[in-house]
Amino acid sequence: MLCQYFAADQCRSCQLLATPYSAQLDEKQQQLLRLLPSLQDTVVLPPEASAEMHFRNKAKMVVMGTAANPVLGIVNHQQQSIDLTACPLYPTEFIQAFAQITAFIQLAGLQPYDVTTKKGELKFVLLTRSSATGQWMLRFVMRSQNCVAAMRKHLPSLLQQWPQLFVCSVNLQPEHKAVLEGDVEILLTRQSMLPEMLNDVPMYIQPQSFFQTNPVLAAKLYQTARDWTAELPLVQIWDLFCGVGGFALHLAAPGRTLTGIEISESAIACASLSAAELGLDNFQFQALDAAAFAKAQQQRPDLLVVNPPRRGLGPELCATVARLQPGWLLYSSCNPQTLSSDLALLTEYQLRKVQLFDLFPHTTHAEVLCLLQLSPSAKI
């Protein structure tokens, strides 16, 4: 992939860009194999490659410059303000979207926040595009509510110019430090959820709910989870760290019941809406701490699905899994290092299948899906 920012040493976010993509993928696969325990009786599948460009469905832009001449991009490794609106990771539709956002900032007079002087209001713009509908969710991260009235006043003009804008909100982040967003979200549109569709599953994205940045590879990841578990004798399923329900909703089948747990209330609202739309009365989603939920349980599920943050499950949650002893464990990891540490603790499980999904090309990150089975020798 050719990138003008990388060639000019203006952006190094894609730190592996100088390495041919096939070599990137091979190195990630080899690193994964080095981290995994014994692969005896394990089916190791080839990695799923991503498109090299135009694969991202969302952008996180620092807003710099002035209200009259805003700059959307990054402050790079040389402390330069770089306009990143032509980044080749984004589909071409993002270029026009960034132009609409820039014009709105100018129209509403939104002064970019300056970290040094601690003056200004607009810190970031967060933009998400639905791959299914082509609609958008736009979030303005602001220091205060001072500009909300002006934004409401000028929003009709933005919606007229940009009819595909479906959800728009203001996030309040008053702290003078590098925190991306705050807890308070102010909706500017009637709609609060961006509709999406992966495979045959309707999904929804709300402000502050997590969704994968590479929808094509995410769809393959969820479909693989569905395929791997299709023939397993499952009745009760738990999905910890379920997010908006990507894995859970793909595991729906007659006779199966599922409990999805996620700390984010907005994500649970999205998952619950999808389940209702699919008529899954036997699926319930709860906004709870995943580790606390699992620790409080006495009965084990047939399948436990876990998709933890980069820190992994950790010793305490691994101990809870070992106590509960679900018959099967489906583990999706965004950090092969912590995955390796967790698998070393789950000694009563045998790794049956593993596959790498390169959701983050040109970086060292990767998503790994594992299917584990409780060893027949484990004491239940």
From TrEMBL:
PANTHER family: RNA M5U METHYLTRANSFERASE (PTHR11061), TRNA (URACIL(54)-C(5))-METHYLTRANSFERASE (PTHR11061:SF30). Signal peptide: none annotated. The active site is at residue 334. Its EC number is 2.1.1.189. The gene is rlmC. It comes from the Bacteria. It is an enzyme of class 2 (transferase). The keyword rRNA processing applies. GO terms for biological process: rRNA base methylation. S-adenosyl-L-methionine binds at residues 212, 241, 262, 307. It holds the Pfam family tRNA_U5-meth_tr. Belongs to the class I-like SAM-binding methyltransferase superfamily. RNA M5U methyltransferase family. The keyword Nucleus does not apply. GO terms for molecular function: 4 iron, 4 sulfur cluster binding; metal ion binding; rRNA (uridine-C5-)-methyltransferase activity. This is 23S rRNA (uracil(747)-C(5))-methyltransferase RlmC.
